[in-house]
Amino acid sequence: MTRYLITGAAGMLGRDLQDALSGRQVTAVDRSELDITDLAAVREAVAGHDVIINAAAYTAVDAAEDDEATAYAVNAIGPRNLAIGAAAVGAKLVQISTDYVFDGTGSTPYPEDTEIDPINAYGRTKAAGEQFVLTENPAGSYIVRTAWLYGAHGPNFGRTMLTLAAGRDTVSVVADQFGQPTWTVDLARQIVAMLDADAPAGIYHGTSAGQTNWFGFAKAVFASAGLDPERVLPTDGSKFVRPAPRPSYSVLGHDAWAAAGLEPIRPWTEALTDAAAHGAFTP
To answer: What superfamily does domain 3-156+180-210+250-265 belong to in CATH?
Structure first.
């Protein structure tokens, strides 16, 4: 029987990964139980496992601008340690990465083999993690880049929108940043399907099909809750200046799934309907 280790198991994706692997032999650890920046601890933790899924990450994008060293430890050194540990025991490693490894200046979906060029500290640390993983365990590792995640087990954009809607008549949302809202339930199931199919090692883009902007995402969330989507008003990113620059275009291509004989994740609109029905946005 395949034995799985999930790191970052208390997070939004980690929780859904546990559900997706229900009935299997799973060890789920959070950061209080495993410090992935400690190589000795990682070597001990991975022993006896066949698959490691690293959902642990430093995701405070703006805070990383002032504390890149801490972000680097978790997002780069941690994956390096897990890759070293996985290689030593012959285990597969799934490293969750991000659209932020790209500069966001594109206008068509980024293929998996696009040269990475991050524009903020968070992106740099995640890019370094990818490179470590591909160096330390190239034959046994999957890089799964994702973006615009939302799920029931953590704060998310949809929940924020509905909370705001309860206290004001209108909500202004940026319309000049494009991406793919992705339900963590769908991503977790896609990762399990990839592993079950024994897909080739390499880079995959784990985002929903289709694309929208934050404005369109917000309108869809309002509609899913029976609210008037016209209460959502468009604005642009210059009105919400934050320490870390954001990519303007974060749409990822999905060719690697077809090459592996797998269907990509379904359209974001279909997933959002299911997510709303399962309470993902309930404040």
So the answer is: NAD(P)-binding Rossmann-like Domain (3.40.50.720)
